[in-house]
Fold these 3 entries.
Entry 1:
Amino acid sequence: MNPGKLIAFEGIDGCGKSTQLAKLAERVRAADIEVCITAEPTQFETGRKIRAAARAGKAIAPEVELDWFLEDRRIHVDRVIGPALEAGQMVLCDRYTLSSVAYQGARGLDPEAILRAGEAAFPLPDLVLLFAISPREGLARVAARGGVSEPLFENEEFLESVAHVFDSIDRPYIARLDASGDADRLETEVLDRLERRLGVALRRGI
Ligand code: TYD
């Protein structure tokens, strides 16, 4: 039904997924494939509400947090992802359903229930690139780009739980990548997965 492809980039903060998304987008464009680059939380009102609450350090119940992310995803699918897929584009999405599974799962909600509900409500991804890195290394990268605002220990403890849930998710559309170390090596891995899983070859052109 949808001629397009949906590729989600997932992992804990500092895993390097956004860098890899940008690198892949460049290659997709160079191959003359129409690409849609997008992210969650979105820039719509629903996403801005989430970011504003996070910045204010507001304590939000996990159920409410999940509702907010789902509301934002619904808008995102309606306005951006759905139309792009129908137009046959390759959608590169920075965070999607598995972020809700892992982050809200780490806050105590049932990961499997979030995953099943997400799969029923939203387009299934053709591929999820799941970037695995230790929370310590991820946080060091976030700190290096000047992004840490909460106590390191608390963050690390929480991200350990998030990483644990990411590790436990089992779906055929997930490709796991070791995200520690070099970005160029990781890019090669990403291209390998695209070729093997989706039959999309992007090595030439750049
Ligand atoms: P953002 O500043 O965009 O971080 P990043 O660049 O790491 O994606 O904020 C996204 C935060 O929101 C991130 O910490 C993960 C969290 N999140 C959830 O908890 N649930 C979700 O469903 C999504 C999409 C994100």
Entry 2:
Amino acid sequence: MTERVVIIGSGPAGWAAAIYAARANLQPLVIEGAQTEENRIKGTLPLGQLALTSEVENYPGFPTGDLAAYVKSAVPADRFLADHTGHGITGPELLELMRQQAVNFGTRIITNDVTEIDLSRHPFKMKADDGYGAVQEIEALSVIIATGARANYLGLPSEETYKNNGVSACAVCDGALPRFRNKPLVVVGGGDSAMEEATYLTHFASQVHLVHRRDSFRASKIMADRVLANSKINIKWNSVVDEVLGNEKQGVTGVRIRNLLTEKSEEVEAGGYFAAIGHTPNTDFLKGQLKLTDKKYLVWTTPQRTYTSVEGVFAAGDVADDYYRQAITAAGTGCMAALDAERWLALKNFH
Ligand code: NAP
């Protein structure tokens, strides 16, 4: 059987694409990624980066707090249908809801990684491996790539220990959580992300220590100047983080940093640690078959469209976006990719 739409990836972009493609009667197949230890370590398990965060406070429609009370107060009585209970939404919950919504409309899912893909001929061909030896060969008329990106970490074992317990790679996602309020926080990096995260965190933190390995920033001047002028940001130049400190109960309590010029180490108290040393898009499996940027992100070849350099292949979400990188923007481009695929298939008389 030749699939009409195969969606590779299972973050907000993938599920939004699936919901739209399924409602267009295209019976999409989502290849959501394999449940393997290797993917866990890389940060590429099914459901993507959002599944690695705790609460999501900025996804429209899901305010924090008691959702039941909110819906009751926000919706007129004659339109209030269900008894809601509970709280705001967590990243994993939001993704499970999207996944279920896609399934309800007829999306099929396999929990595999695409390990090989041939986009040089049509129908496209790919191999999907469950990580335990079972490989499926799949043929598709159109493909939506929504494999996302993964945050880079320094690779310290202690970062791994406190992930979701004070260690984060997304200040915009997590910075406003109660655990980070009115405490000193640490950000690592010297690019625009680090500037943005450090500045953003000053709204909540008592102080932000920005640790950078050199004596000048890579970031754009305007963003670097904003950081340099912010009295709440203390810059630790020529320094690296050797260990994230903490305990199971409190999570992160500080970091041990080392000055590269003096080789002196010090412990800095902190209630949170944010890695802002860049992201890596999950495009390795494409092996150069689509046009990529110099940072290996997929290129959208036409403004306001999700087209890639191969006709019939579309891209959505963080795999093609190193700029906005939000769940809502990923979902938006996922919707666009499904509409683009549907229209392209119709244009080619494929259904
Ligand atoms: P980036 O520009 O690649 O910067 C990464 C930073 O992390 C660099 O300062 C680098 O240090 C440091 N770093 C990398 N690996 C490290 C390691 N192992 N240990 C310690 N430090 C390490 O990445 P980014 O800041 O995420 O930005 C990515 C892109 O998004 C850029 O094009 C950026 O302009 C854009 N962006 C724009 C905005 C905005 O305009 N609002 C916001 C965020 C991102 P070195 O400098 O020593 O290499």
Entry 3:
Amino acid sequence: MLIHSASQLVTISGGPQRGVDLGRLGIIPNGAMRVQDGIIADIGITDDLLEKYPDEPHVDASGRVVMPGLVDPHTHVIWAGDRAAEFELRLEGKTYLEILASGGGILSTVQATRLASREELAVQTLARLNRMLALGTTTIEAKTGYGLSQDSELKMIKVLVELARKGPWDLAITYLPAHAIPPEYKDDADGYCKELAEAWLPEMKSWWQANAADLPLPFVDVFCETGAFTLEQTDLILRAAIAEGFPVKIHSDEFDNLGGTTLAVRLGAASADHLVAASYRDIEALGESNTVAVALPGTPFGLGTSDYAPGRAILAAGGILALASDLNPGTSWCESMQMAIALGCRQMKLTPSQAIAAATINAAAAIGKDGEVGSLEIGKQADFLILDVADYRHLGYRYGGNLVAEVYKRGIQVYSASGGSL
Ligand code: NIG
Ligand code: FE
């Protein structure tokens, strides 16, 4: 198949983009791309490729941008229930951490998720994944973390493994039993951490090897925050995870600075996520490491607060900055990476080209998939979008709708807004 005549073929070639290098989109005007067996086989100028491959079935992208599928590297896409009542409480003045401390927040979603069957969870999660696909997100990280008992965390893992195999999206699965202290361990958080480190992690490793060896080992993540896990507890759990061979991530500096970001760098974590309260030293540490700095601008927006991750400082320090939706029922029920891009531009002062690279190649790096997805280069998966606009800057500039006209995953069309988008 030959996709040709794109007003802009946005390749984002050359690997993850560090610091002020962010935003090299590698645009080919009047670009074309040949796809074979789901892989990008050639790329170049339309006239050249049409001449080289005259008999290939054609897709005419005249007047439209062709770009890599968006990658969402931080989501809590699987859950049951909703928190609409809490949204109202917050608007009346209660804070997120106050609601969590009084047994609501994450714990109220835990209650609903524990009660849900695997089938119910699969149906609800599938609907969200399909909406994300229609919004142009073709690779998605997905965390557990609303089970918090060994059985219900395993139930979430099983649904995610099933959905990862089903596709068409690629899922990067993350095991997050350290999302909150479960009610059973309310007065013994250290006991819970010990149990996770000594029993749950090794058992998850054995389960994975026996039942999901066709998929990469999941990431292990910890919510390092006041009211969730302390720095010492985070360190204990993640060291145990690393000893088992799991790659790791940290939720750090969402509200309070506990030192989680510098710990993430020290442990060689794939990413440190949130970073709203990151200190100058944390930012410096990120700048010198390969730990990807994942900003989630939908979260302060969803909470109605005014502090956002210091994106420009992270770039000035040389960090690898990515964007994600943080899709979850508490702080950010947002399925759209287009919205994350629009918020990144306004609240983190990224340019559209920086925000797009942060939402593709750097986002892929945050989940260890930058060798397969996140850019349009020969040999990579043919995951791409055809936008209903001629200039990539409309992503970011326009918000609240869907600029995606067509979505292709491994060369196969998986979504079409027949007749155009918006
Ligand atoms: O990334 N901070 C922890 N986890 C989510 C929120 C989860 C929830 O409130 O249900 C986040 O914002
Ligand atoms: Fe999160």
